[in-house]
Amino acid sequence: MKSLHGINNLASEGESGISIIEKAVEKLSELGLDELKVKDFKNQLQAVKLHLKNDFKTHLITKSTCIEHCMQYALSDSPCDHEHSETCSSCHQVKNVTTEIAQCLKGVHCEANVKEEIQHDVDLSCEKIVNWRNHCIRTVNQNACKRDILNDLREDQGFIIMDWAMKYLPQTFIETRSEWFGKQGISWHVSCVLVRRNGTEDDEPLNILSYVYLLQNGTQGWFTVSKILTHILQMLHESHPHLREVYLRSDNAGCYHCTPLLACLWKLRNDSFVTIREYNFSEAQSGKDLCDSRTGSCRMHILNYINEGNNVTNVFEMKDALESHGGVRNTFTSIIDVDMSTKPVLSGQLQIPISQYNNFTFMDSGILAFKSYGFGEQLIPSEKLESVTKNMMDI
């Protein structure tokens, strides 16, 4: 066993739920439950863990005759247009084993408060396992959106993945202990743009461009993100004048998944040579692998620069580090200074809870919002968007 850091919260909670149920089974063993039954319960729980970690995601499809593997059944508010004639024994194992544990608990002779404590632990753990399972379904469905976009990406389209990197702590070549404490991190934003190579038949038909923005002044909010996106679209038009549309993808951080940013992007959709066609959000803690990879490359490049005897204590020195020795391949670094006093506010609120929707298509008639990729659509009309964005003329 090795210690792990930064792992998926929902997956970790699900696995801890299985461990808690195993401990509950051990308590039942101490209270007289048959050892063969205890061993059988533990084997079933391990099978559930392996199924959710490895097999479950590979079985999920949009429309399935197996009700446990049907994403339409799990994510859509409407009934499926096909029959569910099959079931998955592996998916049913969680319910089966917890039901058997509850039956065994009734036959155990112990104090009532002990039984209540064990039953509470089992019920709470089952909820964690179900949340893990639901997380797997949402992850597969939202990743299908990314896959479909990349498969159908035209030469005049681009795909932008965005993320705020973990703040960079200033570092000097020789650093005293007093200098090490109390550092204020540097905020930096990483965007990876995938564009199709012109007329290529290579094994890698997509080219990856990265845009790193070092925040000198401002906050990690929607207004800063809108400024960064506007600049990226300008740079893309200059370097790739044939581009006409882009798709956006990010995590569910508040600076991205919010009404002001979506309304602002819709307002400015025709003010650039490159228009935004869709904005799709990934499931929590997934979908940013490309940005994380480029962030790691940038951090290593900065560390090599420091090891040459240089210091990186502000955005200007950080920019010099990233551009040293030719810089990181296909990576462009800029310093951004955002005047937060010019940040506009919405002149009203939309009637739709934006946080419950994860896929947005920008149209002249409004924004078509989906609760999940392909499911639960609702139109936010242009009249309502015009009303709430009338103060955003100067962005």
Characterization of this structure:
By secondary structure, the protein is of the alpha/beta class. Helices cover 45% and strands 17% of the residues. It is globular. A hairpin with a 2-residue loop joins strand 7 and strand 8.
Short recap of the structure:
With 395 residues, this protein is of the alpha/beta class.
User: What is the helix tally?
Assistant: 11
Strand content: 15-25%
End-to-end Cα distance? 52 Å
Strand order of the largest sheet: 6-3-2-1-4-5-7-8-9
Attribute tags:
9 strands, 395 residues, 9-stranded mixed β-sheet, alpha/beta
Itemize the secondary structure elements and their pairings:
Layout (H helix, E strand, L loop, with lengths): L8 H22 L4 H25 L11 H5 L13 H19 L4 H41 L4 E8 L12 H4 L7 E9 L9 E12 L4 H18 L5 E6 L8 H9 L7 E7 L7 H19 L7 H9 L7 E7 L21 E5 L2 E7 L2 E7 H7 L7
Parallel strand pairs: 1-4, 3-6, 4-5
Antiparallel strand pairs: 1-2, 2-3, 5-7, 7-8, 8-9
